[in-house]
Design a protein that fits this description.
The complex is a heterodimer.
Chain A (H helix, E strand, L loop, with lengths): L1 H9 L5 H8 L3 H13 L20 E9 L7 H9 L4 E6 L6 E7 L2 H12 L5 E8 L5 E2 L2 E2 L14
Antiparallel strand pairs in A: 1-3, 1-4, 2-3, 5-6
Chain B lengths: L9 H4 L5 H10 L5 E2 L11 H12 L12 H15 L9 E4 L1 H13 L5 E6 L5 H7 L3 E6 L10 H7 L4 E6 L12 H13 L3 E5 L18 H4 L2 E6 L12 E4 L2 H15 L4 H13 L1 H24 L12 E2 L10 H12 L1 E2 L1 E2 L11 E4 L4 H18 L2
Parallel strand pairs in B: 1-10, 3-4, 3-5, 5-6, 6-7
Antiparallel strand pairs in B: 2-8, 7-8, 9-12, 11-12
Helix pairs in contact in B: 3-11, 4-11, 5-6, 5-10, 12-14
The complex binds pyridoxal-5'-phosphate.
The site of pyridoxal-5'-phosphate has 13 residues of chain B, from α5.
């Protein structure tokens, strides 16, 4: 099961037959296993890793530290729900340490991100402060290295 | 005028040039070929190991080490062998760190052979065994293995090749080039064979981590085996550290002490940077090794299926990263098959004969190559086989 997940996390387009061949199970077993993983929402959906920069489509990412003062009876979850509903919010994490939420905003340009923070995030109830950091370059994202590097070479035939 | 004498010793002149070398030159002229002829991992050394090497250099650790190797590495190797294979060695007297498994094999043979001593060498086998035995002054007694026995050497065949002057048995499981493994019962039979004749065993277990159907059984796993086995291991394969040139030998103290002597005169010590990096390899890389092993296993299954589907019958290789299919259905010899496959489909495999006469009729296909390349190579190979008639 873990091996199937690992394979699909690398390449979501693998067919049941390919999964079966690689893991040494039958195609029917692979099909059932994947169906169950989908049904149990272990596999939430399949998507594509895109290098937007290479596509010439501008994307700006802002990492916003958010400090909160949740009220009695209103936990972090309630605040989080208000934040994550905005489509601009790419990721949202509750953090330990100097601030409470880390909000990753994806926007077309810096102005979009700044506007979102000023107009939507900062004025939210219970939010007491924000600090905005813009991403200058993405080197590695979710395990994928985004910069080209020369491949190490091997001799063509060795013992 | 004095007569000129040959400048190269006869012993060296008569060494056969490696069958790999000739093929290398053919493939080198064809950079666009997909090579399944590579005997080293396609993975790069795990970063944490490379980083440890960099740190070692940063601290200026650029001097010789003790001949035997640095203490912390010897300790890690001892713990590792115990943890993984249940064989225990005293790091102070029963281990030596060598320049790859290659040097360990060479030094072991030079340490134990008297002139003309016989060494039983099951083949097809790694290319260095016979030359190293010869260079050490020994006689290489080659013993064929066959696909009928999954390329596991048979005691009867060893007994037939054995003579009074036979000193050692040199085995390697998991095997390069066949991918064969030796299960416990078979290993115990080999140990008994050697013990009955008071022979030493040199056991090249460099692929020990790469088994796909049950755990590796070391020749030193039984008390009888342990007292007459020189166990050779190394970092090249499982840790993807070929270029670092680091391996080791483990064995009874009297032999290892003598090997340290030979090793110290030959190379002083193994590379310092590599030794320090290898400590991290043993301490922190279990997960990386698991991941690489899992990926090799996936490729192994794909390659094995495709070879059998295209009509090249292939027994199931259970270790290392090679498949060793028979090409006899095509009516071609190993060399003809490999050369024509390269010419016509731009796929490189190594003729089985490069690893000894009993490799005739087989080719070695390495799956230490990415899955997309393996899949493409298998497609081309299937086309070739159906054309020549499989
Ligand atoms: C069976 C076998 N033994 C030993 C070696 C040598 O490895 P090392 O890089 O440790 O010298 C190899 C390398 O291909 C091998 O396949």
């Amino acid at each position: 099961m873990e091996e199937i997940l690992q394979l699909l996390s690398e390449d979501a387009r693998l067919t049941d037959a390919q999964i079966a061949e690689r893991t040494g199970i039958s195609e029917a077993e692979a099909k059932d296993a994947v169906a169950k993983l989908e049904k149990d929402k272990v596999i939430r959906r399949y998507k594509t890793v895109i290098d937007w920069e290479r596509a010439g489509i501008e994307h700006v990412f802002g990492f916003i530290e958010v400090r909160c003062a949740p009220e009695r009876g209103v936990g972090f979850d309630a605040v989080a729900e208000r934040i994550m509903e905005f489509p601009e919010v790419h990721s949202l994490y509750l953090m330990s340490g100097a601030y409470d939420f880390l909000v990753v905003i994806q926007g077309g340009n810096m102005r979009d991100v700044a506007y979102f923070v000023a107009e939507k995030l900062a004025p939210l109830d219970h939010v007491v402060g924000t600090a905005t950091h813009f991403v200058l370059r993405r080197y590695k994202v979710d395990g994928d290295v985004m910069v080209e590097r020369a491949q190490a070479k091997r001799l063509p035939v060795t013992p | 005028m004095a007569k000129t004498r040959p400048r190269v010793a006869r012993r060296v002149q008569t060494l056969r040039p490696s069958g790999i070398r000739r093929f290398f030159e053919l493939v080198e002229r064809m950079p666009e070929a997909i090579s399944l002829g590579i005997g080293e991992p396609d993975f790069i050394t795990p970063w944490r190991v490379r980083e440890a090497g960099i740190y070692s250099l940063e601290r200026g650790h650029t001097h010789y080490t003790p001949n035997r190797g640095i203490g912390p590495l010897l300790q890690e190797i001892a713990q590792y062998l115990d943890r993984r294979f249940g064989v225990s060695y005293d790091p102070d007297t029963e281990l030596v760190v060598t320049v790859g498994g290659s040097e360990a094999i060479d030094v072991a043979l030079r340490t134990v052979l008297e002139p003309n001593d016989g060494v039983l060498i099951p083949q097809p086998c790694f290319v260095s065994y016979v030359p190293c035995a010869v260079l050490a002054g020994g006689r290489a007694l080659q013993v064929s293995t066959s696909v009928e026995h999954d390329f596991q050497v048979q005691v009867d065949d060893l007994a037939e090749a054995y003579d009074e002057g036979t000193r050692a048995l040199l085995i390697s499981y998991p095997s390069n080039p066949t991918g064969a493994v030796m299960p416990r019962a078979g290993m115990e039979a080999l140990v008994e064979f050697a013990a009955d004749r008071d022979m030493l065993i040199i056991s090249d277990e460099i692929y020990a981590e790469l088994t796909y159907d049950g755990a590796h059984c070391s020749a030193a796993a039984t008390p009888v085996g342990r007292q007459r086995t020189i166990l050779v291991g190394g970092f090249s394969k499982a840790w993807a550290m070929t270029g670092w040139r680091l391996g080791f030998a483990a064995g009874p103290a009297d032999i290892i002490e003598a090997m340290v002597k030979v090793h110290s005169y030959a190379v002083m010590c193994s590379p310092t940077t590599a030794q320090e990096a290898a400590i991290e390899a043993l301490r922190g890389c279990d997960e990386e090794i698991d991941q690489m092993r899992r990926e090799y296993n996936q490729r192994r299954r794909v390659m094995l299926n495709r070879l059998n589907e295209m009509g090249l019958s292939c027994f199931e290789p259970k270790g290392a990263f090679y498949a060793f299919p028979s090409v006899s259905a095509t009516g071609l010899t190993s060399e003809q098959f490999a050369e024509r496959l390269l010419e016509e489909e731009k796929v490189a495999v190594v003729p089985g004969t490069a690893f000894g006469p009993s490799g005739e009729g087989f080719v070695r296909c390495s799956y230490a190559t990415s899955m997309p390349l393996i899949e493409e190579a298998m497609l081309r190979m299937a086309g070739f086989v159906s054309r020549v008639g499989g």
